[in-house]
Amino acid sequence: MASSTSDPSTESVDLIVIGAGQGGGPLAGKMAEAGHSVAIVERKHVGGTCINEGCTPTKTMVASARVAHLARRAKDYGVNTGEVSVDQAAVRERKQGIVDMFRDGSRSSLTDHEKLDLVEGHAEFVDERTVEVTLHDGSVRTLEGDRIVINTGARPFLPPIDGIEEDGVLTSTSIMELDDVPDHLIVLGGGYIGLEFGQMFHRFGADVTIIERGEQLLGREDAETADAIRDILTDEGLHVHLESAITSIIRHSDGTLSAAIDGPKCPRRLRGTHILVAAGRRPNTDDLGLEATGVDTDNRGHVVTNDQLETSANGVFAIGDVTGGAAFTHISYDDYRILRDRWLDGVDRSTEDRPVPYTVFIDPQLGRIGQTAAQAREAGHDVQVARMQMSSVARAIETGETRGFMEAVVDNQSGQILGATILGPEGGEIASLLQVAMMGNLRYDALRDGVFSHPTFAESLNNLFSQIDDERVRATRGS
Q: Treating both helix axes as pointing N-terminal to C-terminal, what angle do 88-111 and 55-72 enclose, rounded to 10 degrees?
């Protein structure tokens, strides 16, 4: 790299990326491939939250939990098994092996570029275009970039509760390192992280209690979906307490923990062996030195950007979870594509109006895309809702996976699909199929009349969209 003319110790590059996550890593690689000099700074593990602490390890463990669940259901399929037990250390080792494989692959994708410098250490801004990186050996490198991209992600949030630092109080990161299944796991938070881990560890053999402050689980979902998910979890044996909060935690001499609970229908004190805090995440901006820049943050510390991912400081951009948008890997990756296309090809792309699909990896899965019926009506659409229970889906009956439902929202003016909610086996895959139809502007009747392989879950879209009243759509279109 060339040296700065103002300070011989400062190394100047075209681009500095702070954080080697699922947006930052590909962006650094692509810019280096295009001939730009790039430095990417990572203080812990290449791959970001997704590979190291999020998608990869959790979904690997969800798969282990599902196998345990199916083994216990073997008799339902006419299969006889012995008593099912879980070797939690083996589950953890399997998880770590896959994480290490993915992490190594991400790392090699960066180190293979001649014009890309992977700098391992902690970055802190000196000014808007300069960062100091404290390396793991204590030495410091100073980097200056024509552009800087902040991709530092987020970490679990620990609310201000007395006793929350006690041993046995876990986050979504530390709970995956357990070698033994908890006897009783208390989960603080009924969002997607709390539900995935709660169901997972119940299937591993733990007694699980979920404490949720809101009136329903998954507060951003419609009440009908949230209620259906609660019923599924309680039918499996999990305990769910809504409108409740943990106010303090005490560790006892026998190693157990007790949590004081404030809630209308919850015991005043719950005793368990472990407590998982799944109460949200906070952005990794508090030690970046942003006060030395003109980069604005919101009241939670997220970097504020416009729809082109520009911050308030000229030449400084932010992507991924640190911006406070939808905290999904696919959104972070699309942030990368927006900057790539703008910088390398001059394509005028932005975050405005992009779809935000997501899947909650409980079992059965919750796949979502687009608007709910309430959201569509609030936006001024005249809609019909097609809804079908999974117990009416042939493939679900054949596989013994009949919990949940399929729902799609159709606009009467255009016949277009505005959104879908799939709570069922492979719900994320079915929702993705509907997203493809939405991306291609297919009307509902194209799926209703489509010829799909039998017997598949996709074929059930014939029946789902047969519920739409054609006359209502035609009457509305002709008015």
A: 150
CB 257 within 8 A of CB 228: no
**The pTM is what?**
0.94
What gap in Å lies between CA 1 and CA 116, rounded to an integer?
Answer: 10
Tell me the sheet residues that pair with 426.
none
Tens digits of per-residue pLDDT, 135-192?
999 999 999 999 999 999 999 999 999 999 999 999 999 999 999 999 999 999 999 9
Q: Which of 136, 239, 274, 454 is catalytic?
A: 454
If DSSP states are collapsed to H, E and C, what string results for the chain?
Answer: CEECCCCCCEEEEEEEEECCCCCHHHHHHHHHHCCCCEEEEECCCCCHHHHHCCHHHHHHHHHHHHHHHHHHCHHHHCCCCCCCCCCHHHHHHHHHHHHHHHHHHHHHHHHCCCCEEEEEEEEEEEECCEEEEEECCCCEEEEEEEEEEECCCEEECCCCCECCCCCCEECCCHHHHCCCCCCEEEEECCCHHHHHHHHHHHHHCCEEEEECCCCCCCCCCCHHHHHHHHHHHHHHCCEEECCCEEEEEEECCCCCEEEEEECCCCCCEEEECEEEECCCEEECCCCCCHHHCCCCECCCCCECCCCCCECCCCCEEECHHHHCCCCCHHHHHHHHHHHHHHHHHCCCCCCCCCCCCEEECCCCEEEEEECCHHHHHHCCCCEEEEEEEHHHCHHHHHHCCCCCEEEEEEECCCCEEEEEEEEECCHHHHHHHHHHHHHCCCEHHHHHCCCCCCCCCCCHHHHHHCCCCHHHHHHHHHC
Among 36, 361, 334, 401, CA closest to 193: 361
356-409 pLDDT tens trace: 999 999 999 999 999 999 999 999 999 999 999 999 999 999 999 999 999 999
Give yes or no: 454 in active site: yes
Question: How far is CA 136 from its chain centroid?
Answer: 29
